[in-house]
Amino acid sequence: MENFEPVIVAFCCHYCAYTAADMAGSKRLSYPPNVKIVRVPCSGKVDAIHIMKAFEKGADGVYVAGCLEGDCHFKNGNMKVSRRVNYIKKLLDEIGINGDRLEMVMMSAGMGDYFAKKATEITDKIRSLGPNPTKTVLGFAQK
Amino acid sequence: MITAERKPMEELTEYVKNHDRILLVGCNECVTVCAAGGRKEVALLASALQMDAMQKGKTLDITEITLERQCDPEYIEELTPHIDQVDAVMSMACGCGVQEIARRFKNTPVFPAVNTKFMGASERQGVWAERCQGCGSCLLGLTGGICPIARCAKRLLNGPCGGSSNGKCEINPDLDCAWQLIWDRLKALGMEKQYEEIIPAKNWVSGRGGGPRKIIREDLAE
Amino acid sequence: MQKNILKSDSNKVLVVGGGIGGIRCALDLAEAGRDVILIDKAFSIGGLMTQLDRTFPTNNCDLCTLSSQLSESSRQLHIELLTMTQLVNVRGEAGNFDIHLVQAPRYIDLDQCTACGNCYEKFPEFVRFSPGLDHRAPTCMRYPQATPYAYSIDMDQCSDMDGLVQTCPAGAIIPEDSKKEIDMNVGAIVVALGAEVFDPKGLDHYIYDSSPDVVTSLEYERILSASGPTGGELVRPSDGKPPQKIAWIQCVGSRGLQKGASPYCSGACCMFALKEAMVTREYFQETIETTIFYMDMRTCGKDYELYYQRARNEFGIHFVHSRPHSIVSDKNSGELVITYTPYDSSVFQKESFDMVILSTGFFMAEDTADFARILGIELNEHRFAQTDNFNPVVTSREGIYVCGLFESPKDIPETMVQASAAASMASRNLVPIEENTDNTKEYPPEWDVSHEEPKVGVFICNCGNNIGGVIDVNQLVDFSKTLSNVVWAEMAGHGCSRESLGRIKELIMTKKINRVVIGGCSPRTHEAKFQDTLREAGLNKYLFEMANIRDQDTWDHLDQPEMAAKKARDLIKMAVTGVIHSRPLTDHILPINRDVLVVGGGVTGMTAALNLADQGFKVYLVEKNPQLGGMAKDIRKSIEGENVQSYMTELIKKTLNHDRIQVMTGTIIVDHSGMPGLFKTGMQVGKQMFYRQINHGVTIIATGALMNRPGEYLLDEHEAVMTQLDMDALIEDQPDKIKAYKNVVMIQCVDSRSDNNPNCSRVCCQAAVKNALRILDLNPDTRIIILYRDMRTYGFYEDYYRMARQRGVIFENYKKDNPPKVNSAGDKQVEVTFRDRVLGRDISVPADSLCLSTGFISDDEGSEDLAMVFHLQRTSDGYFLEDHIKLRPVDLPIPGFFVAGTAHAPKTIRESIAQAHAAAARARTLLNSDKINLGASVARVDSAKCAACLICVRACPFGIPFINADGYSEIDPSKCHGCGVCASECPARAIQLMQFEDDQIIAKLNGLLERKVA
């Protein structure tokens, strides 16, 4: 797996994380292009099924990015999804897909630097975890 | 409602390891309400089973369907068009649903996806607690509306036991002592006298002691 | 100084100052259909608040909350924003002012500049882009939402004009730009000048000049900020090491003690310091020792006392009641040694710290006097605006209003209240709007796409090389053409330019494109613009998706163009697969009833009712007591010496006689339903309890609080013991009795800041000082002792406190755990025993009168009933809880509901009146239109799937879903906020959030990932 380029899906809330990602851009901060953002109105909108489907389709890592604790535009959607993320991490562990491939992060709209830093950290971590095992075994079996 | 919890994935993947085409059936009643086997959980389990299979080098053909209720034969009938296209059925309903499917479809194996737990109530979002054991002869009228059979660890009919301390149960300090609750409530209702009455030993024949039970409403039964 | 409504020649309001107050004021006016000229001398608006890291008491990041207000303001049709502009002349009168403005050259055409940043990248020295801060300071580019979203050229720095002009792909740089002189006519002026922050340079005993580790609170704010000079790391400026011990010194530049300091209290610094100390421990390191040196902790805002107690008890912040003598930098260790004398000691103590924060206060710059002359308004002795004793936003000149810091030192919520109040007052100088002129654009009818195959058009912006300079846009266009359902793809240059938008519109119509994807910048900034083009072409605006290939791709991956190109393909593909699943949606637009219900007939309720009735609205004023007047009718004199009684009599008369106000006394609200614009409220009226239902569009809650009268200190048992309110009446009614008093003792915080009533009642410190001064007016020889915990004479009340001390009133501090003791000493006197800090022992005083400052308690029973009927939230001590404690202090969380006066929190009459006008202004914004657009992004329940499990009912952050009579969950689209939490928690998958349906999100994932799976 030398040239492994992970595919990472970031579900970002409109009010904080998505704005932080825009800010990373306007500050020309570099982070790995592996991260692809799906915009949601609130991180609390991110359904367990969206996360599972992302992995099922072959994402190597997924993270949900919401507002800082106490800052959620919709009061507490970020805290709700944070618990949901923990629940799905356990389910992923159970089926042999390392729960560490899924993460919850929180940031304010002004934290462009932090967005870039987390994107880099998570990409590095997923790189070290290797490809989503559903892809490798299946690919192997088909050869 | 009847409460349930999804079984560990290891157990579920073991059930279906020799099957490729699976009908995954949810139920829109109790198990939806306790977030164990409704449409959402069906979709999550389908995805999880698929990913597990992919790691073993195969893909599953999973059909997802959620019935209004799995404990009525008319609803079960909705599965008929699918049954010939699958190797196995996995039900996310309580034990009643699993058995109803098994009763209807003689030639297809049926597996339970959840462990049926108890009859309970929602204490708050995401928390369900046991309230009734279906003993067949209800005592709640004597005990201030709090069931000592379902809620006292020892099922004492005349409690509390010596293990009740500060209103909590000795089995689990997070658990309220049911008899403390009964006493507090009777007192609040001005029914302390009721507490003095000894509740005689219970005849468990009305419960499981008399074997499997059945209700027949003569006016309705045909 | 109450003004009558004037006939106006001009329908415009000039708002001077683009800080948070000026923005709020401009928005309220614009939303009420008034034209506004908002001027600021800086390059972009935002003011002081954009420099803060977090705001108390929620410790929220204020950027998130402010930014939406900034862009909101730029979007408003009615607001003309003139930055770099100053007011130089005002002539005329209310309703008809001729003003003269001067605008400095920006050298950039705002209409052309796309804020691409090429100029700044090439010539950072010439270009400014920050909210009033020099971009070269480490605080530049504080946030990406600067308004206007454009740069400015610093001509003094520019040495290569040709190079600069050429670097701009949009041709927006105009070197020949020059100063502009603007004359216009306005009906009213609102002055929202901010204040300056005290500069501690020159205070040699606090070594701000010589030690880099002594910083001001605002500088510390920047150090804490994630976007600050240290990138969010908390380190000492001197050596970059993390500090372990930090001290705050309060009242630097306030309360008149240092060189050049102001005599008044700056009002905000106590909370500011608490917040910084808490954030330090919460977000950086719990082990950092934090100590606050204070004179009085003035935490008298709403729930601020609880915040203070949390800082003390949960965050372990140390408090030292002392004003430190000096800071000395230890030569060997470099530590900062603070020398101080604790309040209850006479011995010097020393303690070392790594960093010291000076809590610097506000002051008005010297040139304020010149500006006041231009405006023709009077200033007070402190160079703040002189305003009316009953209405803080009214100046000495008719038609000119103030809000925020220019009125007096204060924090953000009070500024927001005054901003709305000023908007409301200014609006009354204008011609009433006859019929609302319908500004909405005419669009062609939408064509029905329901039976059409998705036909996607993809338009990819080059964005002046912002995109095209990194990736090959033509290749991306070719790639787009290969995607399924794409019928058209092309490059769009600057997609958002008028020509491009015209072409997109044309292509939609000729090629029958029924789904549009724009590959370009962020939907946060440009979605609305493109959606408008869809509508012009007759396409539903929700059949649209933006792929953010600029802000989230080419700008970030400049160094990896190939990867950036690959990512761009992924983003375009995700947008295409997603947009195929988009559905035409309808914004929820409803006609509204424009009548107003005001609940509560005290000073606040009457003020709000009169304000709106004067503007032409029908008002129902409901009061549960048999008469109007509330608490204020029992108050005789205000601290400023105004006769409250005659003011109230006049107010009641006006209210009762107003032909658009229907007063219903003895009336209790019993039921309520509906949505903003369509409320129905049922009530029982009068002694016979007749049931009556009224229809109304908005509701203002002004139910007030109660005067507290706890059975403490022999109150109501001994003749000599009374409340401050009793004393207020006694002074007016029986002056001879007062004159005979030898000793008067006052006890503060009687059943306020107590376990039973934990918050501060805010008004009692000034009330005690007021009564003390009036007693001395009657008999200068009376000995008055005020026993207090913290004297909270915020803002200019400090002047009265100082005056009281000068006139011999004795102020003695007591602590909560050792309160004074009171015993009866015969029929006429009581004996008061308290701890004397100098003697260190108890002393007893015989008092002819003991005045208890008993403050307010909430009307718990009344507010609980109303909260039940209206579904409103309350604080733990029974006051109504507003939507946002900082930025929306008048709006309640339920749309269409507003709160004012002591139903919100304890406050003075003057503050209640301001909030009443503010509530009227906020209500007015909803009443401007005869319909309301609620957007389309709402949750929808599929009743066939719903299991009525209640999970959505419990999960909704706003309590909107309910199980209806048919037995399934119902979500009122007019109340849904569109977060989608219910949809993601529904175990039956019965709920979908429009615009973000599951199939759209999963389709996007498919677009990104499908080739990854075999």
Q: Helix and strand layout, with pairings?
A:
The complex is a heterotrimer of chains A (about 140), B (about 220) and C (about 1000).
Chain A: E1 8-13, H1 17-26, E2 35-40, H2 48-57, E3 61-66, H3 77-94, E4 102-106, H4 112-129, H5 133-142
Helix pairs in contact in A: 1-4
Chain B: E1 2-6, H1 9-15, E2 21-27, H2 30-33, H3 39-55, E3 61-67, H4 73-76, H5 80-83, E4 88-91, H6 95-104, E5 110-112, E6 114-124, E7 127-132, H7 148-151, H8 178-188, H9 192-196
Parallel strand pairs in B: 2-3, 2-4, 4-5
Antiparallel strand pairs in B: 1-6, 6-7
Chain C: E1 12-16, H1 20-31, E2 35-40, E3 54-55, E4 60-61, H2 62-75, E5 79-83, E6 85-93, E7 96-103, H3 118-122, E8 127-128, E9 152-153, H4 161-167, E10 180-186, E11 188-191, E12 196-197, E13 214-216, H5 217-224, E14 245-252, H6 269-284, E15 289-294, H7 304-313, E16 318-321, E17 326-329, E18 336-340, E19 349-353, E20 355-360, E21 362-363, H8 368-375, E22 400-402, H9 412-427, E23 456-460, H10 473-481, E24 486-491, H11 498-510, E25 515-520, H12 523-536, E26 544-548, H13 550-554, H14 561-580, E27 589-591, E28 596-599, H15 603-614, E29 619-622, H16 644-657, E30 661-664, E31 667-673, E32 679-685, E33 690-696, E34 698-701, E35 705-707, E36 721-723, H17 724-733, H18 735-739, E37 743-747, H19 764-778, E38 783-788, H20 797-806, E39 810-813, E40 821-825, E41 829-836, E42 841-847, E43 849-852, E44 856-858, H21 860-870, E45 897-899, H22 909-927, E46 931-933, E47 939-941, H23 951-955, E48 962-963, E49 969-970, H24 981-985, E50 991-993, H25 998-1009
Parallel strand pairs in C: 1-2, 1-11, 2-5, 11-22, 13-20, 14-15, 14-20, 15-16, 23-24, 23-25, 25-26, 28-29, 28-34, 29-30, 34-45, 36-43, 37-38, 37-43, 38-39
Antiparallel strand pairs in C: 3-4, 6-7, 7-10, 8-9, 12-21, 17-18, 18-19, 27-46, 31-32, 32-33, 35-44, 40-41, 41-42, 47-50, 48-49
Helix pairs in contact in C: 1-2, 1-9, 1-22, 5-6, 6-7, 9-22, 11-12, 14-25, 15-16, 15-22, 17-19, 19-20
Strand adjacency order, main sheet of chain C: 5-2-1-11-22
Cα-atom radius of gyration of chain C:
31 Å
Task: Please write the string of helix (H) and strand (E) elements of chain B.
Answer: EHEHHEHHEHEEEHHH
Q: What is the overall number of helices of chain B? A: 9
Quaternary structure state of the chains depicted: heterotrimer
- Content of β-strand of chain B: 15-25%
Q: How would a crystallographer describe the biggest sheet of chain B? A: 4 strands, parallel
Mean pLDDT of chain C: 88
Unreliable spans of chain C: 1-8, 56-75, 130-146
Shape of chain C: globular
Question: Could you say how many structural domains of chain C there are in total?
Answer: 7
Structural class of chain B: alpha/beta
User: What global shape of chain B is seen?
Assistant: elongated
**What is the helix fraction of residues of chain C, given as a range?**
25-40%
CATH architecture of the largest domain in chain B: 3-Layer(aba) Sandwich
Report the count of strand segments of chain C. 50
Low-confidence stretches of chain B: none
